[in-house]
Amino acid sequence: MKGGTEERQEAVHRLRENKRALRQEIIDLLAKTTGAQRLEESSYAANRIISTGLWHSAKRIFIFRSMDREIDTTQIINHALTCGKIVALPRMEGRKIVFHRIEHLTGPFTRHSYGITEPAATLPVEEPRDKEYDLLIAPGAAFTRKGKRLGYGKGYYDRYLATYRDRLVTIGLCFSFQLVEDIPTGAFDIPVEYVVAGGDQEEKW
After folding, report:
1. Beta bridge pairs of residue 170
2. Most buried by CB count within 10 Å: which residue of 47, 109, 117, 125?
3. Is there a binding annotation on residue 38?
4. Structure pTM?
């Protein structure tokens, strides 16, 4: 029994270390991303998403507001607001994220200790209701074409998707270099259904 416990602990430790190594590799690449590359790949990915049937049928868009080095979601958010879709951005509350509805990208926002710009807590809370009308666009350190996702190590989106994935269509959004062959995953890692990577020509829908 003791041996089995030690083996499980070792397997968990190995999984964490493998994830940490891949995550650091991607973070190093993000730090080297040029403004021109970010603009080009962000525009490509945005146009790819908003041209899909999934986008046109969605009434509610749950999406992250990108940080400086992430693929930029501004075009997607603005297009959704212009089209009259409900747009909700995540706010960290303890160990979970809660999505709040926004009317525009001028606020009100607050700044989380992680450096993330979040919607103010006073804004209305939005929850997914129906997979036919609710679309979530998720960030990640890395994705595979089959939808495996490597987060940034806090588990916020895995916990959220564990609760709501039956009510959402999920799309992972990333730069082309964040698309990898494989990702080490465990029982609590929740995949996305689709992946859009800037400049990628082999997306499968």
Report:
1. 136
2. 109
3. no
4. 0.92
